[in-house]
Amino acid sequence: MIGGNISIVGKPNVGKSTLFNLLVQKHLAGATRKPQTTRHTIDGVLEEENAKYQFIDTPGLNFNIKKNFNRVLNKNALSAIYQSNLILHLVKYNQINKDDIKVLENIKNLELPKILVLNKIDLIRDKNRLMDILSKIPSEISDYYDEIIPVSSKSSKNIDILKKIIKKSLSKSKKNPIESIINKRPIEFFTAEYIREACIRYLSEEIPYSLHVEINKYEESRKLISIAATIYLRKKSHLSIVVGKNGSMLVKISKAARIYSEKLLNKKVFLKIFVKYDPKWKESEYFLNSYD
């Protein structure tokens, strides 16, 4: 059986999590239009046609911000890359810029197959424009990749072709397949991610990046899973916004996270969310360690 670990890498907000969810055929990673939705490496397995793929969604690589939190996220992404059998470098089809080049600088010397994936081609109306874009990718970029493929995660265009290229590339990989380079996440981890995804989706631009979600209780019976979680906020003024008038926003966040959790767990979920103010959570060693 052909198999291996495939890391999906790129700068923030290029659609890595959407592609990851599409490839593993499950909603495991938070996917929104806002940058840096992904904070953890998340893995998911797909088995089909005598092949076993372990896809790894990674945090967006951001080398411009030197905060400890960003260093942790970069470290997590790079550690997955260095142990992979194949790399999918995701970029926006019409916007290969200096941040994409910085990602390339970190992978170009690795002796393993690399595929440049041009995402969001569903936005292109004229097919000739796509051919023009492909022809204008500089050789100093394209030469580092074994394949270049345009796709649309939104419409699934060329995804089957991408999987065929991955399978072909893995069959030629010099590295032995690694069964699991990332510890399997506990199931409650995904509920925390669903809560954070809902916060990013429904709250204003600033708030989601200054919060952390922690699962306090996870109890499973034959018919029901009871989960308690806490949203930690860095600003006291955000408390009323996250809770909403008469608790309306918290209900909205809880409902979205519960629905995703029930789909994943295939069981009824009771979800209770608390909100707390903690201005220093992002600097706390405990919280930073939770992202290792």
Task: Give a written overview of the molecule.
The protein is an alpha/beta fold. The chain has 2 domains: 170 residues, Rossmann fold, CATH 3.40.50.300; 103 residues, K homology (KH) domain (GMP Synthetase, Chain A, domain 3, 2-Layer Sandwich). The chain is 36% helix and 24% strand. The chain contains 10 helices and 9 strands. Strands 2-3-1-4-5-6 form a 6-stranded mixed beta sheet, with helices on both faces. A 3-stranded mixed beta sheet has the order 7-8-9. Strand 2 and strand 3 form a beta hairpin. Helix 7 runs antiparallel to helix 9. The two termini are 31 Å apart. The mean pLDDT is 81.
Task: Describe what is shown at a glance.
This protein is of the alpha/beta class and 292 residues long. The chain is 36% helix and 24% strand.
Show the helix and strand layout.
Layout: E1 2-9, H1 16-24, E2 42-48, E3 51-57, H2 68-82, E4 86-92, H3 98-107, E5 114-119, H4 127-135, H5 139-142, E6 147-150, H6 159-171, H7 187-202, E7 211-220, E8 224-233, H8 238-243, H9 248-265, E9 268-277, H10 285-289
Parallel strand pairs: 1-3, 1-4, 4-5, 5-6, 8-9
Antiparallel strand pairs: 2-3, 7-8
Helix pairs in contact: 7-9
**CATH homologous superfamily caption of the largest domain:** P-loop containing nucleotide triphosphate hydrolases
Helix-strand category:
alpha/beta
Total tally of structural domains: 2
What is the CATH class of the largest domain?
Alpha Beta
